[in-house]
């Protein structure tokens, strides 16, 4: 029998502030601060312990947590971490308060902290359903957690699948009481309610009806039914595959304009496929800043959902044929001489290349506007369909690019934070007026994205015959001054940056300048931004590498106005994100690779493996504690194996110590003795590598480190990796061609030509090189034996 109590308001959420959902962060220390205790013999009423029952890592048992510490723990902020030297770094209240404020919590004084904590603890009791429910596809009897006032009577639970079909309640549905809590004189109950079984994977709609105070009500949420594992190597019949990796911008060809383009990618794919490659991998293709092409790091994009339009091959644009002005300019002797200089350059001149492409593309777009834009022509309809499919995100990006171009150089206003205040939000009257007045320019930037996607789609179509195809790269975050952050400021934790704690490479820690996503807001939005991000990046990918994959579990955040050394780890909803990745991976038939280098939390790689995410193993780092290189049979099978990365020297440069010499020349060592010590270590590393190669028969026993030909070293090392059980071996073109200088030198900006070096050989002749042919044949032979 139910007694009438005080009126319960399910919409009451306390003070207006963004709130973290404690049930979301089950991986977070302190997420289990509220534990239920009950007696199965009693009336089902459970008392709730709101004191810390299991203190988070970094706290000693018996140590009382302050309200600020409890709020930080519930928000997923780790109270401490250990660096690679084993030293513990404890969070100070100032840092906790700064991060909480950046996440949207009111923490200006102790009263606000207490109110925010209370609101956070009560959140899951006050609302019927969470913003999203994720259940395992393999679960025979899934359940959903819901909350209702004790005076409410639960009615029907219904699932409407994404195909429109309805799954009504099963006759034997169960309802388990998990606990009760009194809030403002009203008693709330939390339940576990069974759902219909055999739900198909996908995004469905879950609704519940209930009666409260004589009135019928309902609540609804997104129900995500997701598989346990990603699409993966098991789908390739156990073959051991190999592929080629390239920095797209670095590709040379007889036709490009001084930067590798999508036509070069298409040609590389075709030639690699004929050579037996299963995949072609490239750097992130995310857009940068068309209005400032000298900003060139592919890992600091303005957006992660669209493409870098500098990679458009102007000569392959379908609309070029009908544009007389563009063709006249293109055919002129002066223009051809200009292009020849760009092609011959040893380093990429982003400004000059962008100026050439923008001039021609502007003419081509003008011709398109005259003949096709808004018209019932094949090109006009195709562009309209593209815009309809990609808006409103496309509209936001194009608006940002037009605004950036408009304000760039005015009063130092390169970043949107420096624009006039009325333009610093995407939905203001000023922005709408700007779009209306500059609609032609906004449409121009949309047009460029359309062209880029057309050309990437063509390369993906060529790659479709390969076992894997295009192997694309997803950056860990977006530049703070970019379009994504400007367009969705509620999703991002502004003024806070993703970075890395102090380590052997950077004793002061690292600030990457990338703005993190707020994990609370992400869940409040039903994970829709994350789902869209995966779809945008898997659309043309046979495999997708997630940079710094540990960020799915936790990210190192640098607080506003502080150095990287003051940063702390923030926990993310790992299990939810892994399930969504698995669902999108299976749907797109896209293998997922996690870049798990650096500080990897204990047990994280096991979790990756359980989710079917492939590890990423780099030869330089695969060592035993004594410094010996791991033998091929010690590598895992669920891994992509490679020699180096873009942040490390290619094998030829590593062997010759070019990276050490470069750092020495740039004064990056604190003391000259540091460089000398590293040179001594490198000498030992060279001997260790030769010992490993000799040990497996990749080199003869009498091999001399001092007399070893570089070509022999390159082939033997790739053959060594080919013997590993790793399902995919990626061979960087820089490694295969004996390039010495590395793509990016961490810790430098203008001192080193980062992201500017071009390959020494054009695509047209790469595969005709005798040494490369021999290397690839050797790898293919070893891979077939390993399989």
TrEMBL record:
Domain MalQ N-terminal beta-sandwich: 131-227
Polar residues composition-biased segments: 33-44
Molecular function, one GO term: 4-alpha-glucanotransferase activity
Reaction(s) this enzyme catalyzes, per UniProt: Transfers a segment of a (1->4)-alpha-D-glucan to a new position in an acceptor, which may be glucose or a (1->4)-alpha-D-glucan
Region (Disordered), start-end ranges: 1-44
Enzyme class (EC, first level): transferase
Protein EC: 2.4.1.25
GO biological process assignments: carbohydrate metabolic process
Entry-linked InterPro entries: GH, Glyco_hydro_77, MalQ_N
Keyword set, alphabetical order: Carbohydrate metabolism, Glycosyltransferase, Transferase
Record family assignment: Belongs to the disproportionating enzyme family.
NCBIfam families assigned: malQ
Entry protein name: 4-alpha-glucanotransferase
Lineage per the UniProt record: Bacteria, Pseudomonadati, Pseudomonadota, Gammaproteobacteria, Cellvibrionales
Gene name of this polypeptide: malQ
């Amino acid at each position: 029998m139910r007694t009438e109590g005080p009126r319960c308001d399910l919409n009451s959420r306390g003070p207006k502030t963004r709130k973290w959902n404690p049930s979301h962060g089950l991986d977070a220390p302190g997420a289990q601060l509220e534990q239920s205790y009950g007696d199965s013999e009693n009336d089902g009423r459970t008392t709730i312990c709101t004191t810390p029952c299991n203190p988070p890592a970094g706290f000693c048992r018996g140590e009382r947590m302050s309200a600020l510490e409890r709020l930080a723990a519930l928000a997923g902020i780790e109270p401490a971490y250990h660096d690679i030297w084993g030293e513990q770094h404890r969070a100070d209240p100032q840092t906790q308060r700064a991060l909480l404020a950046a996440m949207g919590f009111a923490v200006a004084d102790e009263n606000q902290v207490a109110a925010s904590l209370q609101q956070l603890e009560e959140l899951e009791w006050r609302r019927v359903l969470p913003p999203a429910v994720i259940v395992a596809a393999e679960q025979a009897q899934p359940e959903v957690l819901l909350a209702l006032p004790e005076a409410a009577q639960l009615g029907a639970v219904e699932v409407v699948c994404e195909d429109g079909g309805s799954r009504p309640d099963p006759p034997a549905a169960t309802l388990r009481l998990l606990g009760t809590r009194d809030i403002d004189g009203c008693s709330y109950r939390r339940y576990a309610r069974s759902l219909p079984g055999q739900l198909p994977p996908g995004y469905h709609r879950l609704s519940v009806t209930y009666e409260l105070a004589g009135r019928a009500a309902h609540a609804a949420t997104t129900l995500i039914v997701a598989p346990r594992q990603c699409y993966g190597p098991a789908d390739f019949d156990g073959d051991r595959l190999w592929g080629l990796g390239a920095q797209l911008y670095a590709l040379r060809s007889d036709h490009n304009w001084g930067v590798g383009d999508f036509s070069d990618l298409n040609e590389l794919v075709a030639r690699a496929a004929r050579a037996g490659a299963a995949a072609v991998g490239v750097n992130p293709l995310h857009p940068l800043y068309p209005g400032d092409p000298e900003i060139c790091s592919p890992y600091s994009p303005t957006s992660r959902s669209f493409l870098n339009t500098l990679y458009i091959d102007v000569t392959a644009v379908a609309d070029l044929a009908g544009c007389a002005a563009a063709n006249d300019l293109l055919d002129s002797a002066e223009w051809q001489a200009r292009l020849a200089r760009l092609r011959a350059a040893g380093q990429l001149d982003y400004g000059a290349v962008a100026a050439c492409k923008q001039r021609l593309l502007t003419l081509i777009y003008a011709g398109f506007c005259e003949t096709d834009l808004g018209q019932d022509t094949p090109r006009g309809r195709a562009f309209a369909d593209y815009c309809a499919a990609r808006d409103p995100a496309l509209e936001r990006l194009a608006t940002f690019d037009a605004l950036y171009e408009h304000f760039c150089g005015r009063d130092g206003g390169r970043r949107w934070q420096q624009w006039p205040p009325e333009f610093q939000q995407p939905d203001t009257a000023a922005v709408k007026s700007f779009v209306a007045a500059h609609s032609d320019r906004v449409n121009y930037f949309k047009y460029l994205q359309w062209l880029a996607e057309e050309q990437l789609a063509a390369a993906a179509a060529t790659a479709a015959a390969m076992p894997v195809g295009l192997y694309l790269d997803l950056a860990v975050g977006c530049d703070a001054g970019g379009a994504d952050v400007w367009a969705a400021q509620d999703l991002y934790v502004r003024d806070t940056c993703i970075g890395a704690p102090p380590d052997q490479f950077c004793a002061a820690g690292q600030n990457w300048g990338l703005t993190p996503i707020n994990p609370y807001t992400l869940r409040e939005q039903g994970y829709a931004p994350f789902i869209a991000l995966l779809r945008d990046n898997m659309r043309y990918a046979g495999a997708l590498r997630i940079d710094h994959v540990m960020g799915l579990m936790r990210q190192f955040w640098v607080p506003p106005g502080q150095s990287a050394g003051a940063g702390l780890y923030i926990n993310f909803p790992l299990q939810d994100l892994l399930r969504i990745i698995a669902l999108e991976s299976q749907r797109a038939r896209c293998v997922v690779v996690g870049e798990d280098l650096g500080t990897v939390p204990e047990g994280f790689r096991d979790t990756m493996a359980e989710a079917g995410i492939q590890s990423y193993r780099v030869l330089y780092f695969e060592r035993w504690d004594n410094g010996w290189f791991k033998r091929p049979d010690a590598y895992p099978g669920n891994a992509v194996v490679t020699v180096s990365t873009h942040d490390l020297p290619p094998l030829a440069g590593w062997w010759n110590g070019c990276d050490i010499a470069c750092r020495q020349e740039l004064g990056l060592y604190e003391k000259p003795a540091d460089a000398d010590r590293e040179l001594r270590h490198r000498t030992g590393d060279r001997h260790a590598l030769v010992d490993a190669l000799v040990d497996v028969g990749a080199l003869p026993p009498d091999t001399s480190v001092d007399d070893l030909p570089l070509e022999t070293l390159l082939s033997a090392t790739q053959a060594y990796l080919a013997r590993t059980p790793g399902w995919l071996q990626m061979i960087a073109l820089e490694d295969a061609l004996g390039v010495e200088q590395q793509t990016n030198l961490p810790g430098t900006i203008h001192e080193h030509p980062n992201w500017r070096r071009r390959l020494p050989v054009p695509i047209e002749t790469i595969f005709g090189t005798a040494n490369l042919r021999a290397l690839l044949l050797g790898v293919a032979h070893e891979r077939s034996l390993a399989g």
